[in-house]
Amino acid sequence: MEDINSAQSGTAVETLAQQFPNTVLKPGSPRYEEENSRFWNRDNADIRPSAIVTPSDAQETASILKTLSDTKTDFAIRSGGYMPVPGYNTSSSILISTTHLNSIELVQGNLVRFGAGNQWGSVYDFLEPHGLVVPGGRSRPVGVGGFLLYGGVSHFYAEVGWACEAVVEFEVALASGDVVVASEKENGELYWALKGGGKNFGIVTAFTMKTRGLPKMWGGVRVAVGARETAGKVFEAMHDGIQGDVDEKAHVEVISFFVPQMCQSGDPMFALCLAYAGEVERPEALRGFLDIEAVQDGTRIATQRELADDDKQNIGYDKRGLFRAFSYRSNSQLTLDIYTEYYTLAKQSGMFDEDAGAMAALLWLPAGRKLSSGTSAISLGEEAEPYLSCNICFRWEKPEASKKMHAVADAIAEKLKKKVQDSGAFIPFTYGNIAGVEDTTFEGLPGKTRKRLREVAARYDPQGVFQKQVPGFNLV
Ligand SMILES: Cc1cc2nc3c(=O)[nH]c(=O)nc-3n(C[C@H](O)[C@H](O)[C@H](O)COP(=O)(O)OP(=O)(O)OC[C@H]3O[C@@H](n4cnc5c(N)ncnc54)[C@H](O)[C@@H]3O)c2cc1C
Which family does it belong to (predicted)? Predict the structure, then answer.
């Protein structure tokens, strides 16, 4: 099977190199090596595609897709390269990199249209002088492609819901070689499906999104020591923040982490990432978090770009990393139990003996009502209750530690999921952008949503190219 695949990819590389001589990069060339270094999880850079193809517009992307479809050649798609799942944004066959699809422009006054090769920082650099913002990634280097196609959690999630809800138009290259536009008016079913349905329909070459005027907002990171009592207060504040009437301008991401050299007291640390969509210092809606004693406080009035630039740790292409995730109905005592058990298990696992510089982190995305319901393909239904998405994240350097890190993460994730299931709070859907291979992403959506997604895929990709030839979270 492998021989057949490599023979197919060899033939396709030669065909593509003849058709598009300037877009096909082969191993060893400086541009190939530069492209192949752009993975948040360095394990993905070790996969080394037989060629990296870098189309410069939608039609070229579609023609490349047609060749790959006709020759039944496996290929992967990569935008920013921030999805850590091994082999989901690269392939030993062919990698299509959206690097050159990097235009950004304002259209019709208040919309921004940008190519799929952009990272959020470039979009914010462009919008800042206009005093405009979009619901995008909270860290500068995250790619626009994977982020928006699987949903996207921005500083404005409480008001907008998944960031993809603000996309008004997708430009899509299909496996047939055609380029189509998907919006409310044209190809409406594809438009719906792309809002959360991932890589399963085509390669999105450009996104057009609504912007809003917000020259400055409030936000930043407050760092606190994660002793049990503090953790209890953090989780109560997080729970209160998604119940009942919420202030939709308020944002919180609760990050906890343990790095042995930094956490010598034995307690993990919290990085409480707070934001408020207005020039309001210490907003009342975030009082519960502001009352927690901070050892460092980076909150201030700032632009969206400045807040996205805050994340300087753990964003580079220099380390290895993994995600696992699960969701549950919010309950502060259960969250405290999960937190305590997670760090106990991580410390006992031997992961820090394997790589003394490793980090174990546990993050929560409070999926309030606008995220749990809404119009996207990953809405859980109009009446769906708010929930918490919990993300396990490890980061390490040594390549030889990768196997152990994945085994430890799998074992911990299984124990924590069981704990949540036993408590009766488990929600089967997991947000793909924070998930691992074994986590239930599309499987956890309502049956009628899954059927509708499969129907859209069958209509726009009748040969099943994006199911069979492209790695990533498939439809089920
Ligand atoms: C440091 C860090 C910070 C993060 N911050 C946030 C955050 O604030 N909010 C949040 O919601 N998530 C966040 N994430 C998760 C992030 O959204 C996902 O990793 C997301 O997939 C990254 O998008 P990308 O384009 O960089 O991904 P890639 O790794 O390039 O792609 C991810 C997946 O999408 C597919 N894909 C990418 N582009 C296209 C395209 N144009 N057409 C079709 N398929 C495509 C790929 O094939 C792959 O399967 C963060 C992750 C990290 C590591």
Answer: Belongs to the oxygen-dependent FAD-linked oxidoreductase family.
Residue type, 49: P
**Cα–Cα distance between 301 and 128 in angstroms, integer?**
14
Domain extent, residue 113, equals 104-214
- Chain centroid offset of residue 392 CA: 13
The enclosing domain of 43 has a CATH number of 3.30.43.10
- Residue appearing with tokens 């074994």: 438
Interstrand relation of 111-115 and 203-210 (parallel, antiparallel or unpaired): antiparallel
**pLDDT at residue 451, as a whole number:** 98
Q: Give residue-wise pLDDT tens across range 326-369.
A: 999 999 999 999 999 999 999 999 999 999 999 999 999 999 88
| Overall domain count for the chain | 3
Are residues 226 and 168 part of one domain?
no
Q: Based on the domain organization, do 73 and 206 belong to the same domain? A: no
Percent of the chain with pLDDT strictly greater than 90:
92
Residue of 42, 44, 61, 83 best suited for mutating to test ligand 1, as the one with most atoms within 8 Å of CB: 83
Write down which residue in 214, 244, 266 finishes a domain: 214
Dist. CA 284 → ligand 1 center (Å) = 32
What is the structure's pLDDT at 5? Answer: 64
The Cα 412–Cα 344 span in angstroms is: 10
Let me know whether 92 and 155 are in one domain. no
91 and 115 assigned to the same domain = no
Give the nearest ligand 1 atom to 153 CA: 11
DSSP code at position 400 = G
Q: What is the pTM of this model?
A: 0.97
Atom of ligand 1 lying closest to residue 472 CA: 49
CA distances from 198 to 110, 145, 168, 474 (A): 26, 9, 16, 8
CA distance 139 to 252: 14
Ramachandran angles phi, psi of 219, nearest 5°: 170, 180
Q: CA-CA distance, 240 to 246, in Å (whole number)?
A: 9
275 shares its domain with 397: yes
